[in-house]
Each structure stands twice: as structure tokens, then as C-alpha cells.
Model the fold of this input.
Amino acid sequence: MKAHGGADETLNLAIAVFQSVLPHEGGALALTILLIINLHFAGTPSMTVTSRIGFAMARDGIFPFSKQLRWVWKRKQIPLANIIFVFTIDSLFQLLQFASGTAFSSMVAVTTLGYQISYLMPILLRCTTARHTFHLGEFNLGRFSIPIAIISCIWLFITSILMFFPFQYPVTKDNMNYAIVIIGGIALIASIYWIFWARHAFVGPKPSYIIDSMPLPPGHVTAEDVSTRSAPDSPDTMDSRV
Done:
């Protein structure tokens, strides 16, 4: 979209809207600053969530360097290695927009699409292969579980397909939605990783007391060291103390 003064330059859509509806440039600038501040505070919890997920996956031994990625800084009790890893990957993705705006837009689209697929896979397995072996939790939907799961799978499948559609028409190499290429590449890498290594080593989520420990530098520990924690008192012990 062109700038407010008619200059032939590309603007962010949000900034272009601010300039279109506000008579003075100062108002658009103020709203843009508020938007930047909002994005900053939204990015911090987003990185926190991503690092927590990454730590949980490293704790279960999914990644090739899981032992290193599950380091916990003892003083602050945070997975420092995983936070640095997530920060580095996020920074590289941010730099991608300087190389190609189309590639960056496709990467942003893949973010939502990745959530869709991550929701679809466990729900689909829950109502198919694990239908009779799935252990219900304390809260469950009872007899409505399978019908709701089927509806959810249909919805997620349709909306995921729509996210592969191109942004503009006619489609060219500059405006193509490369989400299908990115998802296909990730699926290919994941499949190779699973066939040649993960299916022999990964056994699913593991309790923290059986996670392999490793020597770490001073000030660092592995994931939760429950072996050093005392077990909670039994009711009989508590009564005897009283």
C-alpha cells in the first residue's frame, strides 16, 4: 500500500490504516508507537510459552541435543539454554523479512497452520487408533467426546486447507503462499528424523525422576531433580507429629 502522501513506497497495512483515518501524521505515529509497545509485551509471553514447550520436549528427549537444551539455571530456576535457543531462532526468523517479504509472510502463516495441525493430530488419534485405549482424565466430555472430536477434526482440516491458498491472484513466484513448501519440508525432515533415530530412542513423555543426568557447569542443574526432594508426609506421620 502506498504512503499517505502518495509516495511510491510500501507501508505496513496497520500503519496505512492509521494514516488513512487520522488527519494528522502525529496521530498515526502515536498509534504506531502503541502498536510497537503492544507487540513487545506480546512477544515476551510468546517466547516464554515457546521456551516452556521446548523445555518439555527436551525433557522428554525429543530433540537431538535434549540433554543440553534442558539445562536449568539453578539461581533463577529457568531453562536458560532453551530460552537462548528459542531467542536465537526467533531472531533469525525476524531477519528473514529483510531477505524476502513473501517468505516472511509465509512463515507467519505457517505459525497459525502449525497450531492447527498440532491440535488436529492428537484429536484425530484420540477418536481413531486410541479410541479404546485412551485414558480419560478427571474432566472429560463423556459420550460426547467422540462426536465433538470428529467435528473438531473436520473443522481443523478444512481451515488448514484454506491456509494453503495464495495471498493474491494471479499467482506468481513473488506472491505465492509458500506455506505448503515449508510444511512439506518440515514433514520431510521430521519423517527422516523419526525413521532413522527417534523411533528407536523416543519412548514418550518420561517422569522427571528417570531423566538421565549429566555433569553440568557450576550453577546449572538438569531438569527437575526430584531425587533430592523429600516425599510428602503420609497422614499417619502427620497424626503422630500432632
Remarks:
- The mean pLDDT is 74.
- Residues 232 and 238 are 10 Å apart (CA to CA).
- The radius of gyration is 24 Å.
